[in-house]
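ARCHIVE CARD
Drawer: 12
Card no.: 0347
Subject: one protein chain, sequence and derived structure
Cross-reference: see card 0346
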Amino acid sequence: MRKGFLFATAAVSAALLSTVTACGSSGSGADSAGAKKPKIGVILPDSKSSVRWETADRPYLAAAFKAAGVDYDIQNAEGDKQAFQTIADQMITNGVNVLIIVNLDSGTGKAVLDKAKTQGVATIDYDRLTLGGSAQYYVSFDNTQVGKLQGEGLTKCLGEMGAKNPVVAELNGSPTDNNATLFANGYNGVLDPLYASGELTKGPNQSVPDWDSAQAQTIFEQMYTSRPNVGGVLAANDGLANAAIAVLRKNHRNGQVPITGQDATVQGLQNILAGDQCMTVYKAVKKEADAVSALAVELAGGKKGQTSATVHDPTGNRDVPAALLTPQSVFKNNIQDVITDGFVTKAQLCTGDYDALCTKAGIK
């Protein structure tokens, strides 16, 4: 995959809007001349696998669409595949001419995309590629690079601890999420040679259905029971990392076993401040939301989207025009970057016992 993106710039407001289910303009959707105004639909996947969908993506997308002056409808399927399809049907019936989806799985996503295509609706896969789907465009981060940063981060933290041939457990993301496969491709590209050389020992390795943190804790409990000498954990996101930390804390080993993460959530950053998690991967969601919004506005206006990358869909055997943004590793010494970027506020992060830890880390 080639990194980078190039879109015509759309004016985007920096202010976050309050969370609402549908945020379009009211009325008939026609302008004063009687022409139908562009309308963009967005289906988010859930609010359980990651808090980002409601706390970041929704308000950033709403702000961008409002600034562009287009009608829009943002809804969340809350992990329900039937609801996902129902929402899509309603949006198509209500006249969206661009549909952006974050699929729950490729099967459901494909059905929605294919139906939209038959109705002449332009389609964009957002964050997750729908394998075998028909989306015209894909906007995401370079997810193989995300995994590479996780693998490099874990080896960095293990090296700083002076670990000798540690057992590494892997908590992978959902098996139905293509991003989880890409993350694993990235971190296994770093870790596999180290397993082969004997520098690291490959331990338990399991995927977590639906990125569910409760299931992740049960899975990691079983991992820990089978390999209590685990010395490092490659957790695919901050929620899975926190599940592993809970098990380690119960066994009085939190802070002694480096753990990776992803999403730079408040919880993940606090775990890093406390020394229970070694790193996370920050994906500037505002940039991703701005990129997909700019593309959607172009398509809604009848223009062709401009991209400078492609991603191969192995199931559909096609190359999808794409915009791939660059992720960033976050350790304790650069948490400030996430705050400076406005993704997390100091007030959110530095609460209670974390206030002193923030001061110690130099967070302003």
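Annotation on reverse: Residues 1-34 have pLDDT under 50 and may be disordered. The longest helix spans residues 178-197.
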